[in-house]
Amino acid sequence: GLLCSRHQHSTKPDPENAQATEIERRIERETIAEKHIQKLLLLGAGESGKSTIFKQIKLLFQMGFDHAELNSYTPVIHANVYQTIKLLIDGSKELALNQTDSSKYTLSPDNKEIGDKLSEIGGRLDYPQLTKELSEEIEKLWKDPAIQETLARSSELQLPDCTDYFMEHLKRLSDVDYIPTKEDVLYARVRTTGVVEIQFSYDQMLYEDENKNRMVETKELFEWVLKQQCFEVFLVPLLFWNYGVHSVFLVPLSTCEWFKDYQSVTSGKQEIEHAYEFVKKKFEELYYQCTAPDRVDRVFKIYRTTALDQKLVKKTFKLLDETLRRRNLVEAGKVLIESKEHKIPS
């Protein structure tokens, strides 16, 4: 009886030990699963498209935006409209003071009162709902020659990329039953700071710092990343998210100190391609300047796309995924990379 009793006591399960064992197993499973998760750190200067890419990830790889989330963007979009028109009004006034031909940037007498009214609204901390009456006044001011002349020099202002899009859809945005579309949400500009997590332009001034050129800020950030020891063995993709937007109003790159040696060759699409290749080469040179010769395990890729084009964003992420998969195979010793000198002709 004593032996039986001892046997029963030794085999009786201990709830605390069982719970501890289960916790250890769960941690082990999570650790193994974590190793298979690829993490992407998005870094960029102001107005570089980081928040837009987060929205695209939500649309492409999650469930998108529900009705409540879409509605939550209505005041943001209305605020963007007021902020944008105020920037244009203020810009026209500044240009009128500093330019020889000041009349080009002076509002017509019929629109001066509207301009003062909208400038006052745009300067508030709390914006009113965009009504039909206000949208008509904004549209009238938008068509004023002085505002259009100011828009032509938008690279000197802090105009967000949503400017043309929202101005073209003023009537719809002011509907009583307006519900933002996914395109509206992608264009909506919310100033973000800090770190946000989700699972799944050449001579323009920074929105955060009007005294610093966007491309200079991007250069400095890129250079800083390359010099960090923690990024020595990572894939470093350089993404020109705003390529499609910036190419619309391509301006002389020589206005940026870093691009002072740029020489224009022609105009239109050829000029855009020429400018892109020049900028690309600049960043490639910077990469190799900041990367030690023995850091052959770091992969550098440049992608040209636009954060607002869902198809291009999806394609870019697919290319990134393929690059990461190939890198993992190389590290596991499962593929043999042929050198360019021994590449088999197709």
UniProtKB/TrEMBL annotation:
<dbReference type="GO" id="GO:0072593">
    <property type="term" value="P:reactive oxygen species metabolic process"/>
</dbReference>
<comment type="similarity">
    <text>Belongs to the G-alpha family.</text>
</comment>
<dbReference type="InterPro" id="IPR001019">
    <property type="entry name" value="Gprotein_alpha_su"/>
</dbReference>
<dbReference type="GO" id="GO:0003924">
    <property type="term" value="F:GTPase activity"/>
</dbReference>
<dbReference type="GO" id="GO:0005095">
    <property type="term" value="F:GTPase inhibitor activity"/>
</dbReference>
<feature type="binding site">
    <location>
        <position position="192"/>
    </location>
    <ligand>
        <name>Mg(2+)</name>
    </ligand>
</feature>
<keyword id="KW-0342">GTP-binding</keyword>
<dbReference type="GO" id="GO:0016247">
    <property type="term" value="F:channel regulator activity"/>
</dbReference>
<keyword id="KW-0519">Myristate</keyword>
<dbReference type="GO" id="GO:0010027">
    <property type="term" value="P:thylakoid membrane organization"/>
</dbReference>
<dbReference type="GO" id="GO:0005834">
    <property type="term" value="C:heterotrimeric G-protein complex"/>
</dbReference>
<feature type="region of interest" description="Disordered">
    <location>
        <begin position="1"/>
        <end position="20"/>
    </location>
</feature>
<dbReference type="GO" id="GO:0090333">
    <property type="term" value="P:regulation of stomatal closure"/>
</dbReference>
<dbReference type="GO" id="GO:0097468">
    <property type="term" value="P:programmed cell death in response to reactive oxygen species"/>
</dbReference>
<dbReference type="GO" id="GO:0046872">
    <property type="term" value="F:metal ion binding"/>
</dbReference>
<dbReference type="GO" id="GO:0010244">
    <property type="term" value="P:response to low fluence blue light stimulus by blue low-fluence system"/>
</dbReference>
<keyword id="KW-1003">Cell membrane</keyword>
<dbReference type="GO" id="GO:0009094">
    <property type="term" value="P:L-phenylalanine biosynthetic process"/>
</dbReference>
<dbReference type="Pfam" id="PF00503">
    <property type="entry name" value="G-alpha"/>
</dbReference>
<dbReference type="GO" id="GO:0001664">
    <property type="term" value="F:G protein-coupled receptor binding"/>
</dbReference>
<dbReference type="GO" id="GO:0051020">
    <property type="term" value="F:GTPase binding"/>
</dbReference>
<keyword id="KW-0472">Membrane</keyword>
<dbReference type="GO" id="GO:0009749">
    <property type="term" value="P:response to glucose"/>
</dbReference>
<keyword id="KW-0807">Transducer</keyword>
<dbReference type="GO" id="GO:0031683">
    <property type="term" value="F:G-protein beta/gamma-subunit complex binding"/>
</dbReference>
<dbReference type="GO" id="GO:0042127">
    <property type="term" value="P:regulation of cell population proliferation"/>
</dbReference>
<keyword id="KW-0449">Lipoprotein</keyword>
<keyword id="KW-0564">Palmitate</keyword>
<feature type="binding site">
    <location>
        <position position="51"/>
    </location>
    <ligand>
        <name>Mg(2+)</name>
    </ligand>
</feature>
<dbReference type="GO" id="GO:0009738">
    <property type="term" value="P:abscisic acid-activated signaling pathway"/>
</dbReference>
<dbReference type="InterPro" id="IPR011025">
    <property type="entry name" value="GproteinA_insert"/>
</dbReference>
<dbReference type="GO" id="GO:0003376">
    <property type="term" value="P:sphingosine-1-phosphate receptor signaling pathway"/>
</dbReference>
<keyword id="KW-0460">Magnesium</keyword>
<dbReference type="GO" id="GO:0006571">
    <property type="term" value="P:tyrosine biosynthetic process"/>
</dbReference>
<feature type="compositionally biased region" description="Basic residues">
    <location>
        <begin position="1"/>
        <end position="10"/>
    </location>
</feature>
<dbReference type="GO" id="GO:0009785">
    <property type="term" value="P:blue light signaling pathway"/>
</dbReference>
<feature type="binding site">
    <location>
        <begin position="47"/>
        <end position="52"/>
    </location>
    <ligand>
        <name>GTP</name>
    </ligand>
</feature>
<dbReference type="InterPro" id="IPR002976">
    <property type="entry name" value="Plant_Gprotein_alpha"/>
</dbReference>
<dbReference type="GO" id="GO:0009740">
    <property type="term" value="P:gibberellic acid mediated signaling pathway"/>
</dbReference>
<keyword id="KW-0479">Metal-binding</keyword>
<dbReference type="GO" id="GO:0005525">
    <property type="term" value="F:GTP binding"/>
</dbReference>
<dbReference type="GO" id="GO:0019236">
    <property type="term" value="P:response to pheromone"/>
</dbReference>
